Amino acid sequence: MRKGRLEEVFSRALHADDASLYFVSYRDFDSVAEMPLKEFVSLSEDFQVIPASRIVKVRRGDVVLYKKSGL
Fold first, then answer.
1. pLDDT digit string (tens) for 6-61?
2. What strand order describes the sheet that includes 22-28?
3. 3-state class of 49 per DSSP?
4. Which of 23, 30, 34, 67 is the most exposed place for a label (fewest CB within 10 A)?
C-alpha cells in the first residue's frame, strides 16, 4: 500500500479504533463498490487482489476520512 493519508486511515482503523465503523469504496470495473473495512481487507487479501490504487474513498460513519483526489 502506498504511504500517506490512506495508510494512516487504515492503520488507525485496524489498530486503534473500532474497524466495524469504517467503510471502503473502490473501483470495481465500471462502478464503485462499497463494503465494510474488515471485509475489504479480507477480500483484497492485504491489497494483493484489490490494490490500494483502486480505493476511492474511506469513511467512518458519515465522515469521509480519505477521498482520492480528482473525484
1. 999 999 999 999 999 999 999 999 999 999 999 999 999 988 899 989 999 999 99
2. 31-36, 22-28, 55-60, 63-67
3. coil
4. 30
Q: 56 exposed, middle or buried (CB, 10 Å; 0-12, 13-18, 19+)?
A: middle
Q: How confident is the model at residue 1 (pLDDT cuts 50, 70, 90)?
A: very low
Residue entry with cell 469513511: 59
Residue whose C-alpha cell is 494483493: 48
- Kindly report the pTM of this predicted structure: 0.88
* Residue type present at position 21: L
**Hey, what's the cell of 33?**
463498490
> Which domain range does residue 57 map to?
5-67
Q: Which grid cell is 27?
A: 473501483
